[in-house]
């Protein structure tokens, strides 16, 4: 009887109650770099507002690389050093045909605008990132060890 009385008097939260912990939204920080070949490299770090949030384990760095290619299905790898640990990521790549100008392109060489994307789980906190993208085995850096460096 006491339990029933307590349930009837306890306030009920509506189904659309707001999260007042400040943890629901992931905070995002984005940094950009231009590679040796003039391509755009973007890193976005999404993380919980605090390390003790329920969604802190969802922290991740997403790397986006935009480039042009002569093939519709290039092989893209991203050598990444995150907080001192290095690894090579295989990126998901999408390409679309590019035509220059308004006239019909009669060139025998095809050109594609490509976008590569890879996500790397990480811990909450400051992120030091070094990236060397490669397309079909050719690195897009100015020299060995001269990779794009980003702080997030």
What is the number of beta strands?
10
CA distance, first residue to last residue:
56 Å
CATH fold-level label? Immunoglobulin-like
% residues in beta strands: over 45%
Main CATH class: Mainly Beta
Computed CA radius of gyration, to the nearest angstrom: 23 Å
Shape: elongated
Quick description:
With 152 residues, the chain is mostly beta strands. Helix content is 5%, strand content 45%.
Question: Would you mind describing this structure in some detail?
Answer:
The chain is mainly β. It has one domain (26-100, 109-140): Immunoglobulin-like (Sandwich), CATH 2.60.40. Helices cover 5% and strands 45% of the residues. The protein is built from 1 helix and 10 strands; from the N terminus they run αββββββββββ. The protein has one helix spanning 2-9, and strands at residues 27-34, 40-47, 60-69, 76-82, 85-90, 92-97, 112-121, 128-135, 138-139, 148-151. The strands form 2 sheets. Strands 1-2-3-7-6 form a 5-stranded antiparallel beta sheet, with no helix packed on it. Strands 4, 5, 8, 9 and 10 form a 5-stranded antiparallel beta sheet that branches. The model is unreliable at 3-14 (pLDDT under 50).
